[in-house]
Write a structure and sequence with these properties.
- The protein is of the alpha/beta class and 360 residues long.
- The chain has 10 helices and 17 strands.
- It has a 3-stranded mixed β-sheet, with helices on one face. Strands 5-6-7 form a 3-stranded mixed β-sheet. Strands 8-9-10 form a 3-stranded mixed β-sheet, covered by helices on one side.
- The longest helix has 20 residues.
- The chain starts with a helix and ends in an 8-residue tail after the last strand.
- The protein binds delta-amino valeric acid.
- The site of delta-amino valeric acid has 12 residues, from loops.
């Protein structure tokens, strides 16, 4: 990962806050309800079981999906107006059954959350070996984009494709305190991780052990991104951990946003940083979220060190950012939030203008 290539590669991003020049924004088209299996049960709200069991491999409730499509398009337009180049994945049909020699799935999931799948470190795009069977071929929606970036000079690698046989799932995982007991859904049978369990601060990258990211997955990333990087594991006490970006969000040099319920302590290296806890989400309690908690409110994306895209109804968070010497850019996204993520999840950095450095 030489700096030399990073200056000529179309892909180059080292942190969450250098000026954003190009970004992938997900699409909801072709999205399917995932099968309710042990991996989905471990990470999804119990209230979703009925819908998932009834509709696996089929379309999501049409009105909510259509509203999410409109919000994603609106977000993409806002980014374009602000001078960011936006690219979108292909509208792959995820409502098709598929199988490996070991198992079958009635369908896929979606192409809405590229952050879950694609880890960009410098000039390299890494395809994550995701632990959900329904996400096994999710990469297909991005192949045209990735092949194009590769042609133009990016590095492109995939972590070893996992088998996802029953050996990777611990049926006795801890449903209340996996962090305290160390019993997560995923065993150490083979490396698995979601890209969204990692968050980048230049030469330091922070990760969480989660139900979908095991220690072998973290080790794989640490060993493959090269000696100039250090991967630190953060203690996150989320009862159903999946993705670090609604828990631990470095926003800019010296600014760290934390989920007050999930992160009790951070490494001493943050001693000189200004650390703030996100306010309670503003979503009405009866707003139906199929795939996450309301804490996706803090799943924001930085356009540069000051400008932050934040959900338009999250007034307490907007006020906090304004008070923190930041410039909130409010965008309506409550219907996208139903599907498990907000602005950070639905994007994957392609290029931010900056270089590799340490912030500690
Ligand atoms: O709060 O349920 C959401 C992480 C974003 N994919 C939560 C975690």
């Amino acid at each position: 990962m030489s700096e030399n290539n990073a200056t000529t590669s179309p892909v180059s991003s080292y942190n969450e806050w250098d000026p954003l020049e190009e970004v992938i924004v997900g699409v909801m088209d072709g999205a399917a309800v995932p099968e309710w299996d042990v991996a989905v049960e471990a990470t999804m709200p119990a209230r979703s079981e009925k819908l998932f069991r009834a509709s696996a491999g089929q379309a999501w409730p049409a009105e909510h999906a259509a509203a999410a499509v409109a919000e994603l398009d609106g977000f993409a337009r806002t980014l374009t107006e602000l001078g960011v180049r936006v690219v979108r994945p292909d509208a792959v049909d995820h409502r098709r059954p598929f199988a490996t020699p070991n198992w079958r799935s009635p369908g896929g999931l979606y192409s809405a959350m590229p952050r879950d799948l694609l880890l960009v470190v410098g000039d390299t795009i890494i395809e994550a070996p995701m632990a959900w069977r329904s996400r096994y071929f999710e990469i297909d929606a991005y192949r045209n984009l990735l092949t194009d970036y590769f042609r133009r000079g990016a590095r492109w690698i995939s972590a070893p494709k996992p088998q996802l046989t029953d050996d990777i799932y611990d049926a006795g995982y801890d449903t209340e305190r996996p962090y305290e007991s160390g019993r997560y859904l995923t065993t150490e049978f083979e490396p698995t991780f979601d890209a969204a369990d990692f968050i980048r601060c230049g030469t330091d990258i922070f990760a969480q052990r989660s139900h979908v990211t095991n220690q072998l997955g973290i080790d794989w990333v640490a060993r493959h991104i090269g000696g100039e990087y250090t991967v630190h594991v953060i203690d996150v006490t989320d009862p159903s951990p999946m993705h670090i970006d609604a828990s631990f969000m470095p926003l800019a040099p010296g600014k760290l946003l934390l989920n007050p319920n999930r992160v009790k302590s951070v490494p001493a290296m943050f001693d000189s940083w200004d650390i703030r806890f996100a306010p309670d989400p503003a979503l009405p309690r009866d707003h139906e979220l199929y795939m996450s908690s309301a804490w996706v409110s803090m799943n924001v994306i930085m356009l540069d060190e000051r400008r932050v895209v934040v959900e338009a109804g999250e007034q307490p968070l907007i006020d906090m950012f304004a008070d923190w010497d930041m410039e909130p850019v409010p965008v309506p996204f409550r219907n996208v939030m139903r599907f498990g993520g907000c602005f950070h999840c639905v994007t994957a950095d392609v290029r931010r203008r900056g270089t590799l450095r340490s912030y500690f």
